[in-house]
Amino acid sequence: MYPGLLHAHWIDEAEAKGFTLIDRVWDRLHVLLECKACGSQDVVRVSVLMGFQPICHACKTDRWHDTAEAAGLEYLRRDAHDRHYGIFRAPCGHELRRQFGLIERMAQGETGFRCAICQAGTEAAEAERRCWQLLGPDHEGDPNYRLYRHSCGHEQRVARVNMQTGRFQCGKCGPAWPAAPNNLYALRFVLGDGTTVVKLGHSNDPESRLHHQLRLRDDLPADLLKTVPMASGSAALRIEKRLHATLRRRFPWAVLPAERFRGVIKVTTEVYDGRLEPIVLAALDAIEARARRRPCPRG
Ligand SMILES: [Zn+2]
Ligand SMILES: [Zn+2]
Ligand SMILES: [Zn+2]
């Protein structure tokens, strides 16, 4: 407490601005105010009381809690170094440092948010599935590219979309198609007479194979049923051939003659009666489970 008069015009000014003047504190320049809304107390300079609207920090914090909640976040605390920033908890559980102004815009629905930590985790997992490690941003500054390291030790910049689809190869251990990633796939086609058939094959891009290479008639339904990533084209070809041999031997009745699907699909063999679909899918499931257990190549 600081001795001295409590001037009547200070008391009036505090009242008018939503506070009760409690006493003088520290020195001749400061007073203690109590917020009439929430009862908490703050020390302010007399000059602030007389010339401006004093701020109740407790009420302000409450407002931040509300704003953060409207933005889908939890307000944790102010940033210790910059008064424009706060620390918030995202729905994923990560703590984010964000500008208060941005949180206000999020609360208004003007902008969304992306958790950089979760995003990095997603991209790291995408890479890991293909035996690559995410190292960081592209050193050439292209936002669509990242820097990765293959399990053989080779480092390479790769477009993220290519990492997702596998449409690229390692510059060190994957020099040509036989070594480049590939896929087994199962497609379902419906023929003009309503018969459902299933096609099994391999491709480095089954989706585009379905839409741009195989289909002759867009009016008949066609679906990509399943894709199994393979480490290389040669592995995909070898496994596909073995699977066809097994299917022909065990289900000779299901092998469709070419005249049945001529004009619908641009292939001459490897098309089966639709009743074989569950068997083909189960075989691909088994291959996928085996491929997942196989260790990554080492350099
Ligand atoms: Zn208050
Ligand atoms: Zn997160
Ligand atoms: Zn490699």
Structural write-up:
It is a single chain. By secondary structure, the protein is α+β, with helices and mostly antiparallel strands. The protein has 4 domains: 10-55; 58-107, no CATH class; 117-168, no CATH class; 179-292. It is 35% helix and 26% strand. It contains 10 helices and 13 strands. It has helices at residues 8-16, 46-51, 57-70, 100-107, 116-129, 160-165, 206-214, 233-250, 258-261, 277-293, and strands at residues 19-25, 30-35, 41-45, 74-78, 85-89, 95-99, 132-137, 145-150, 155-159, 182-190, 196-203, 222-230, 271-273. Strand 10 and strand 11 form a beta hairpin. Helix 3 (57-70) crosses helix 4 (100-107). The longest helix has 18 residues, at 233-250. It binds zinc ion (3 copies). One zinc ion binds at residues 150, 152, 154, 170, 172-174. Residues 35, 37-38, 40, 56, 58-59 line the site of one zinc ion (ZN).
The number of domains is 4
Task: Give a count of the beta strands, DSSP E runs of length 2 or more.
Answer: 13
Which radius of gyration do the C-alpha atoms yield?
33 Å
Give a list of the ligands. zinc ion
Strand order of the largest sheet: 12-10-11-13
- How many strands, what sense, and barrel or not for the largest sheet? 4 strands, antiparallel
Euclidean distance between termini CA atoms: 74 Å
Share in helix: 25-40%
Global shape: elongated
Quaternary organisation: single chain
Instruction: Kindly estimate the percentage of residues that lie in beta strands according to DSSP.
Output: 25-35%
